[in-house]
Amino acid sequence: MDERLKALMQELGNAINETLSESEQIAAAIGEIRRAGYDVFLILEATIGFNRREQNHEDATPARSEPSSERRRARDSEPRAKIKWTSQDQKFLRALKIAIDED
């Protein structure tokens, strides 16, 4: 892995850590747990993947390929799984500023 990518990954990690540590909602939730008499240990694991794009000399934007009509029909005909979010799930995602559709 080249040094530039390592530096960018470190910058991303720092940004995530800073965002979480500055979250008033997370601080409030942790404060409530502590007031209830518990110590809090927050460990988050993030999986971040990287794929190198091939650069076109005329345009640095990667080309997007459309899925084949067969794959698109198969994907569209598959039933969508329903996810049941608990109130704790929703609070956690909101604290990370992640919106969810509540259909």
Description:
The chain has a domain of 50 residues. The model has no long low-confidence stretch (mean pLDDT 78). It starts with a helix and ends in an 8-residue tail after the last helix. It is built from four helices and no strands.
Keywords:
103 residues; 4 helices; single chain; mainly alpha; flat
In brief:
The chain is mostly helical and 103 residues long. The protein has a domain at 1-50.
Helix-strand makeup class: mainly alpha
Order of helices and strands: HHHH
Overall body shape: flat
Report the sheet-strand fraction.
Answer: under 5%
Which spans of ≥5 residues are poorly predicted at pLDDT below 50?
Answer: none
Helix content: 40-55%
Total number of beta strands: 0
Distance between the termini: 42 Å
Mean pLDDT: 78
Backbone CA Rg: 20 Å
Number of helices: 4
Largest sheet: none
What is the fold's blueprint, element by element?
Elements: H1 3-22, H2 24-35, H3 69-77, H4 87-95
